[in-house]
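Inputs:
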Amino acid sequence: MHDGGPSIVTSERERLAVIDLGSNSFRLVVFMAWEGWWRRTDEIYEPVRIGEGLAATGRLGEEPMRRALATLDVFDHFCRAAGLSGDRVDALATSAIRDAENAAGFLALARERTSLPIRVLSREEEARYGYLAAVNSTTLTDGCVLDLGGGSLQLVRVLDRMAHELGSWRLGAVRMTERFLPANGPAKRRQIEQLREHVAGELRRAGWLAHAGPRLIGLGGTVRNLAAAVQRASGLPSGGVQAAVVSGEALEELVERLAALPAAQRSTVPGIKPARADLILAGAIVVQGVLLAGGFDGLEVTEAGLREGVFFERLLADRPPFSKAASPTADDRPPLFADLRRTSVLNLAAQYRPDAAHTDHVATLALAMFDELARLRLHEGDPRERELLWAACMLHDIGMSVDYDDHHKHSRYLILNGGLPGYSPIEVAIIAQAARYHRKGMPEPGPLAALFGPRDLARLDRCAVLLRLAEDLERSRDQMVRATRFTFTAAATATGEAPAESDADGGSGEIELRLIADGEPAVPRWAARRESELFARAFHRELLVAA
Amino acid sequence: MHDGGPSIVTSERERLAVIDLGSNSFRLVVFMAWEGWWRRTDEIYEPVRIGEGLAATGRLGEEPMRRALATLDVFDHFCRAAGLSGDRVDALATSAIRDAENAAGFLALARERTSLPIRVLSREEEARYGYLAAVNSTTLTDGCVLDLGGGSLQLVRVLDRMAHELGSWRLGAVRMTERFLPANGPAKRRQIEQLREHVAGELRRAGWLAHAGPRLIGLGGTVRNLAAAVQRASGLPSGGVQAAVVSGEALEELVERLAALPAAQRSTVPGIKPARADLILAGAIVVQGVLLAGGFDGLEVTEAGLREGVFFERLLADRPPFSKAASPTADDRPPLFADLRRTSVLNLAAQYRPDAAHTDHVATLALAMFDELARLRLHEGDPRERELLWAACMLHDIGMSVDYDDHHKHSRYLILNGGLPGYSPIEVAIIAQAARYHRKGMPEPGPLAALFGPRDLARLDRCAVLLRLAEDLERSRDQMVRATRFTFTAAATATGEAPAESDADGGSGEIELRLIADGEPAVPRWAARRESELFARAFHRELLVAA
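Outputs:
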């Protein structure tokens, strides 16, 4: 029995603080993991701008260093107060600190004043963490990863999920802004052209880029902010930007709009954050340069970044503090999830208290019905759709952790807000809406209607009704119904064989659902009989539930 | 340290299925309790209408009995499959079954075919459970409880939270509809008048009703549905109806609107459920009759009902299956929560995994600052506002069970959807918005803006900034800051004494916050300095955080 309460996690939990000393901002993130599952549990952000002035002088400025040391002092106190030290803290410096002439002096001061174990990442290490973040948060197998920071741009070519060429350029958004664009007023066309030419020239040294397609995955705060602005411009509700796509055209429109505004006013463009208003135009132009050089149609965004790359490596490579937390990957393979989509669903479910026996059985029954109806040619049996159905089954009840009333709506809320890396926005929307309609009502596309095409609506209907039927058969949560069998009646044959092609297409007959159960399945039958209307809409058949 | 995961509940959980065999619908609800906290974990509803035809014949009809037995069979299977039997099931029959001439025959059949232990409640018992539900889900101390079912109306006079006069009338919505209103077409004025006269005549026998005010609490499906319709008509978003107020005027408007429509079309009125469309008009007129007879201005709605009354009695009176779950009330007092508002907040918090040391300390710091600023005459020190601040502190982090990102928004969602019986809608809204703004941003009234007056906005500002300051001081979640002290600077005296009255009102000076901490409070100071803008808006003072 499901007892309706939120998640119990009795096993040991380990935590890791990752500190990112970026050229634009410093950020401290705490990850927690238990039994291979994880979540982010804390985050402190400070727009330090340690890279300010670096493009002109080659040195870290006094004022930026003062801000940086003050912030590190705060982070240091936080870690100590939180009991995070030794293997539980990893602090990483990137481009600005790596490249500054006076970096050693700054690092000496930082190490003197705090106990933070600061590592200065090489260009290759920085690029590799971006790659690990991208490949562990998207389904990228072949293509390119773009990581745009304040100081530098990293590009990594990916073949069969493995990193091949790694490149790093001093084309970060802070650097390019300071070098090419005016601090005040709109950007002049000539300034933009000079920046474009500089980017194109620099990228020419990566000959492989022209063949790195088709997919380009983008990381970093600038990329996330561009995606948010494009999302808002297309009328989608503001939510996360995981798996959002920024097309070349949308980016061009955004650049036009941003360039016409003085830097200080760019945050009036919906989605643009005030703290990035002055950097966002240069960042957008650098991304455009990559699209052009690689012939990419657009950029797929992931919310994961350097920090997640560090975390995933520790989690998956069985390194402290997560030793024994997961099965280590073989030594010759990088630390990658074997099946990200499956992992994402199970990780989201693990945040709550799933009644594993119930959800697993709902999934088993639903997938068996899916397969049988495909054999009977009532639908195509698309394996992607089958996976969405499985995900909806695994997640349908997580909303019970909010309240029993409207728990179907709460499940949707938790799915949309928790996110499912590896699934596209429309896939997440279908999973969320199927969970939303797992009890009653005729499915509608809901808050993300703008993403739905007609085929998606039909998919949602099929996923919703099969989840619902499975839930009906498991209404008393005791796995009493072991299996199901569909049989054509009326116009179809009496033996359960598929009817003639024309009949399957015409969809005029009836189909009977028999339940194979331990005992008398009174509750399942009573519950399943309520689904005839939605079943008819999804499969064009009248559903009969056998007595 | 808070580890960010959802609630752990390691103690033993007990469950109780309450089955309500009402005149209009049958409903099975499962409650779970652990350590005195509770939640609803399952519910099955079937609009059986066993009372159909009873008004005309005095007997249960064959077809209604058949529907009732089929539904009881389903409930019986559900309970057995769910492992609920013996003390864990309580099945209650009310008005229709109590009053029907052939009830004994029906009960014999039900007992033969199922193992459900059906109790037929007397009028007094039915009224008493309604009373227990009302007084344990609202702050009613003196007034009247109205419980309107399909078969009967119960009214209970309450003095100092104790039940006094109990009355029961055969004025249920199913009964009145069948007796007075047409099955099809709009209701005629004469029919409505006859129903009104009948209700008034019946209620005349409760002489005490005229003196039972001022508050009238309403229970039951009809009342909830009327509240939903009134809520929708006033432009509020559809959500729960806990503590919603249905004024006499709003009810009159609704009756006019419903009476003009044929029964089948009444569900076109936003908020009216199709399954109640035919009953709702008679129900509304019965409620109007009570308002008139008692001189009440309106009806305050609670979502609790008979089923919760049964549950609360078991939970609070230390009866099976909840023996030892809570401290039993003294024998001579009915089973009532000592402090419902406090209990509601702690019960909602207990659903998630609160970091008790952190939330308690945030509350301690916030309330101490509230009290000190009241002594310094920067606000009135309203004890109700103090309680809202406490509630927001206890609940501010529950959204972390959804996701770290936007957890302040998730906390709001969980508060608004979880509900806080005993708090009015505007109070719940202030608590939810204070939690929403516990990290950053200038507080706005949010989705329930329609409820906010100017004083509420000022209250929200004060609650939000004090919660935020307390959270800042507890930023590293280690209780390092033990206490705070405010001191007037600038125009004020140097000793921390309150300035002259005119200065406190004028609000032109500065106020310094000193931290008394174990160790160097670098993180708290860094965090608290961000609150000066909101502090100035809330208290009209410039906030300085002492070094």
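Remarks. Chain B touches chain A through 55 residues (CB under 8 Å). Chain B has a mean pLDDT of 90.
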